[in-house]
Amino acid sequence: MVGVLVTGASGLLGSKLVAELVSRGYEVVAIHNRNPVMLEHEKLVKIKLDITNRTLLEDLILRARPDVIIHCAAYTDVDGCERDRELAWRVNVEATRSIVRAARVVRSYLIYVSTDYVFDGEKGMYREDDVPNPVNYYGLTKLIGEELVRASDLLYTIVRPSAIYGVGGSKKSFAEYVAEKLSRGERVRALVDQFVSPTHNTLLAKTIVEIVEMRPMGTIHVAGERMSRYEFAIRIAKALGLPTELIEGARMEEMKHWIAKRPRDSSLDTSRARALFRTRFFDTDLALDLFKREWVERKSG
Ligand SMILES: NC(=O)c1ccc[n+]([C@@H]2O[C@H](COP(=O)([O-])OP(=O)(O)OC[C@H]3O[C@@H](n4cnc5c(N)ncnc54)[C@H](OP(=O)(O)O)[C@@H]3O)[C@@H](O)[C@H]2O)c1
Q1: Which of 130, 148, 279, 287 could bond to 200 as cystine, CB 3.0-4.6 Å?
Q2: Is 82 domain-assigned?
Q3: Phi, psi values for residue 128, rounded to 5°
Q4: Count of structural domains within the chain
Q5: Partner residues linked to 31 by β-bridges
Q6: Does 245 map to a domain?
């Protein structure tokens, strides 16, 4: 069976990806750092490794010789990237450079998980060939990561999701935050003027497994339907049977605590992916149904 090495295996996406891969019979080497990978499986080897340690990371890839590398790890805190640019550079750029270098030696196929934040958000519904123009340091480092992959002679796919949500990993996604606050009867503020394409982690993971199997070349947008953060909060509340009246609209200009600038509309056009894959990654009803099940499961322990 094909061996897959996954970075960021303890994250919101990576945790689902590892589960999906082992359930389909793949041998998986899962790299995590500060947080654990909860899953136990005979086909899963977990390795705690800081990917900014170039020697350890490259040695691991050279020893494991994976057929496929899925690079999900990133410093994803958008304000954190602005505060600590050096760390953002080392995690998002330098570690990607190491992965590309080692992948070339062992001839792995590389899937690089990028972001909608490579775009400036002035237009929305971006296609794969639209010109990126990041408005913050996180987006810039992820774009440079893309360019390192593109400039290599590897077989690669760059996957761009948007506003990933779901249950899994160590941090709480926006959807979980909304669900928890509303279920406690607390008010939630959500932006009426920031538009994204909320992408469910399990559906994205299933689509990435299809990518492993199909190996489509180049860049591909895999994301949900375009909506404002406010509309998304309303959809979550409705799906979970929670009170929508507790959701208040807010505007981006009120977010004085933000350090990084955010794109106004970073929604993605997913026509290419829709034509290629079986997974209905764009189906909000399906995604929220899954989210409801997983959230209730996590709450009940
Ligand atoms: N979340 C979103 O809304 C969103 C939207 C678009 C694209 N993306 C992209 O999708 C990918 C997955 O995002 P996510 O939300 O699943 O991320 P996440 O939950 O924040 O997880 C980040 C992962 O990266 C790992 N990581 C960070 N620094 C590391 C280091 N120095 N060494 C080793 N591992 C390190 C973390 O490991 P530990 O936790 O174990 O330290 C964790 O497994 C990222 O590439 C991100 O840029 C995310």
Answers
A1: 287
A2: yes
A3: -60, -30
A4: 1
A5: 7, 47
A6: no
Looking at ligand 1, which atom is closest to the CA of residue 10? 43
**What is the DSSP annotation of 141-163?**
HHHHHHHHHHHSSS-EEEEE--S
Q: Which of 6, 7, 13, 38 has most ligand 1 atoms within 8 Å of its beta carbon, as the pocket-test mutant?
A: 13
Q: Which residues 6+ apart lie within 8 Å of 218 measured at CB?
A: 128, 157, 158
Which residue is listed with tokens 């041998």?
27
Domain enclosing residue 16, as ranges: 3-164+198-224+268-275
Give Cα separations from 289 to 192, 239, 292 (angstroms): 23, 7, 5
Residue 193 lies in a domain: no
286 Cα to the center of ligand 1, angstroms: 24
Question: How far apart are the CA of 73 and the centre of ligand 1, in A?
Answer: 4
115: which 2 tokens?
Answer: 């972001």
- Rounded mean pLDDT, 199-223: 98
Residues 133-184: tens digit of each pLDDT: 999 999 999 999 999 999 999 999 999 999 999 998 888 899 999 999 999 9
Kindly state the tokens that stand for 265.
């509309």
Q: At residue 215, does pLDDT exceed 80?
A: yes
pLDDT of residue 1: 53
φ/ψ (deg, to 5) at 40:
-115, 135
Contact between 57 and 15 under an 8 Å Cβ cutoff? The reply is no
CATH code, domain with 128: 3.40.50.720
- Confidence grade of residue 299 (pLDDT, cut at 50, 70, 90): confident
Report CA(291)–ligand 1 centroid distance (Å).
19
Considering the domain boundaries, does residue 172 fall inside one?
no
pLDDT, one tens digit per residue, over 256-268 is 999 999 999 999 9
pLDDT band at 85 (very low <50, low <70, confident <90, very high): very high
DSSP run (H or E) holding 190: strand 188-191
